[in-house]
Write the structure tokens for this entry.
Amino acid sequence: MVKVIFLGTGSGMPTLKRNVSSIALIFTNSNKLWLWDCGEGTQHQIQKTSLKLSKLEKIFITHLHGDHIFGLPGLLASRGLRGGQGQKEIQVFGPEDLEAYLEETQKITKTYVPYKIEIKIIPKDFSEGIIYEDEDYLIRYAEVIHNFATYAYSIEKKERYRFLVEEAKKCNIPAGPVYGALKRGEKVRLPDGRIFYGSDFIARVEKSKKIVFSGDTIFCKNLINLAKNADLLIHEATFSQQEEDLARRNFHSTTVIAARVAREAEAKLLILTHISPRYSSNNKSGVREKDLLSEAQRIFPQTLLAEDFMEYEV
Amino acid sequence: MVKVIFLGTGSGMPTLKRNVSSIALIFTNSNKLWLWDCGEGTQHQIQKTSLKLSKLEKIFITHLHGDHIFGLPGLLASRGLRGGQGQKEIQVFGPEDLEAYLEETQKITKTYVPYKIEIKIIPKDFSEGIIYEDEDYLIRYAEVIHNFATYAYSIEKKERYRFLVEEAKKCNIPAGPVYGALKRGEKVRLPDGRIFYGSDFIARVEKSKKIVFSGDTIFCKNLINLAKNADLLIHEATFSQQEEDLARRNFHSTTVIAARVAREAEAKLLILTHISPRYSSNNKSGVREKDLLSEAQRIFPQTLLAEDFMEYEV
């Protein structure tokens, strides 16, 4: 289905090991690329992978803090420089003011982009909803709790069904419009009086899959709902449980909060990201990155700690 | 005097070898850091050196194209995060709209910076002038010719003089106010009728030094004036001489233009920077980076081609 590549797994500012926030979603069949967030240097990270800016179709922004969007103007400009004329349009989804940010930045810097940028703003009046849907995928948003309007996103691959034509034939059901009705799951009465139910002629060939990205947040029930039964929950864990107060003051999660959300949502796997730079070197608490993982695993064993360029297929 | 470290030597968009524009000036005695331009990822480049953001005092922006300033908001934010409270203020110099760019970006992204940012705008009505001066250094700007208001900058270390106190003593000149007058180079008449000239009691102990950075420009006489007798001229050379038309259409210089400016300015050394990504891989002209250097050296032999992290001491 979708491969997740972590492009930036740090919080606030880049370090040599962790860039600021960005997650790539690659559709393994089509090679098309979507992004969640776009911190400074995201285009540089992309250059270190096999990903192609020309394949980039959609960007979903969780919130407008700099470490999540300062890479957006440069990435959009480079996509234009690299691709020449006739490039496909791009869609950027995010909170109010995303449009002002892009417009002001591009106006002042006279950035010319030779393709259309469609900006889709999440409506302020709703704490959850659907922001995008196509034949195969559904993207939902849910407002989370940060010191800035912030949204979590889920991407769901829709279930796929196959019409069991051989079963229909066995029952001597005539091909044509009746097949269509059965495919749509309808109840059908034939001229000979027999009744058939669509559900008997449909087999699920692909299960729904769901990946959820928390954005920046404290413990949030809205997020638990969004992440219900997710195959993968990517949750911020800026701080160690030992710095719970600091996390709360900064409207961020600890490892344990992320693990509790994963447990309550009954997610299959949790990946921690948005790790504070403080754990990469000496700090007075003495906490190291490996400790972060242990803290979460005590509550939710199916947990991984993201690293830049880590890949995970769902 | 000053060490120049090239942080980004590419043009337009980053490549794996060349980041977008930024040049660091390090004052070898004090370790203080100034920057010329600040493309996206400049803070990442700084992390790969021994430079410290906490030592950053001044940033000079040549113009507001994205590849010269998209790294500025993130760098200023990280300086704040890293340094905590009580940090020294910073000065940012540049063209009109620099203030709007920083204000809009910081407002929309709610970036809090715990130190003062003093923005100094180059007055629109002058094509050259002094934008900063202290006891030791003088920074001049000169408008150059690009498709955007763009300025070249020079940094000049002032000459230093020593008062030859032992000579004054030999002449039995009484210490006190007369010494002061001689230090200032004045003519002095003593009560006994003798006349002395300050110039006889002053020795130059340090020559003036000058480094000039062109910004983005085509051939420009204003720049030649600014760069007169420079110890180091850093000149953009986006294109090969073989793509002269392309250079002209994009208001950029070729290698040969950079070399002609260096020759006419009688600079001691020329370093080419702002190299187009097209020369890092196959392109139809077949020109490679080493060819760029040869093109310039045929006209101005004392030429180097900048690379990211190259250092040069003046």
